[in-house]
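Running this now, will post back.
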Amino acid sequence: MIGLGLGLVYGLYSWTVARAACVYSPGSLVIEHSGSDTAYLYGTMAGQATCKLRALSRSNPEIETLVLVEVPGTFDLVDTQAATRLVRKKGWNTVVPSTGLIASGGVMLFLGGVEREVAQGGQVGVHAWSQPGGGGVLFSSPENIPANAERAFRQIYRALGIDPAFYDFQVNAAPARDMHWMTREELRRWDVVTR
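Update: finished.
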């Protein structure tokens, strides 16, 4: 019985450590924080964004703002959606600085911010969602994006208070292998920015 109890305790401990230890992969999201209420994000979201943002929140409860310096996209839509919901739940604001760039899944993460600002000169890029398919085929046009992926995008936009038609704007703005850089008018029209 003691062995079983010790096994359960060790298993819980191992699970907790593994959950808290965010995996690093080259080029993946990096979060820098220097003791203020602001953190700086760089890199592609490769499946560990939620873990890294949770760790940031635990160790720095004073965080109020995430500056997305360069977040060009994601390889993991499920994790990106979870990270986006976490940003909103924490009540964090998001900013793209004047030299900053967000694109594709980086835009979804940005939309998690309660207050959202893109400084003059900051770039916001959207395009059709893509995913490797059988034989290396990409879903790269609105006609061949899976219905469940489309629903997932629309649901998260609704949850964030964004017009779900923003999804249609994105996928029609540019094919998956290209990028449409949003104008200031488009940023305001789709409520991408709040200030």
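Residues 135 and 163 are 35 Å apart (CA to CA). More later if anyone needs it.
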